[in-house]
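Many introductory courses stop at the sequence. We go one step further.
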Amino acid sequence: MGDKSFYSLMNQAMLGKTAFVLESVNKDLLRMTDKSGNGLLHKTCIFGHLDLIQGLVEKGADINAKDKYGWDALYFASYHNQIPVAKYLLDHGADPCTRGERFTALGAAACEGSQEMCELLLSYGADLMAKMRGYGAVANRTAFDMYGSFASRLSEEKKKQGRQSLLEAFEKSKNASTGK
């Protein structure tokens, strides 16, 4: 299957055409990527097609494969607030502390003000205080610092409440892991 066929299959995956994609996919196609390094699993996670994601993983898709920016399936699910997808990926070995060039998955969800996603990632051991990399306003800030910074829908009060809830969830997950 050539590039043209791969891109056609990628489009079918984004549309959630589970049966068609799973019948067409093979190990070679699971390893193919677009120009940004995104494979079928990456793109499918953006749109939250859980049944297709499960099928791709069962067929051997690498949950922790990264694109050229260092983003993996969990990063895409987190950024796009695909909670059932993120939970599935975490349950199947995704790294809760994954990071791309600049953001962690938690940082991406925090910037968007995605409270439930943040709490999910924290419950699996994501680090609320991990520093973002890069430049400008992002450099050396944490998911805690960045909470709601991309979410114009959130008032300053909601952002403050969200950060407090994240801090509580982070402390709870730390205590659970140490047995306190």
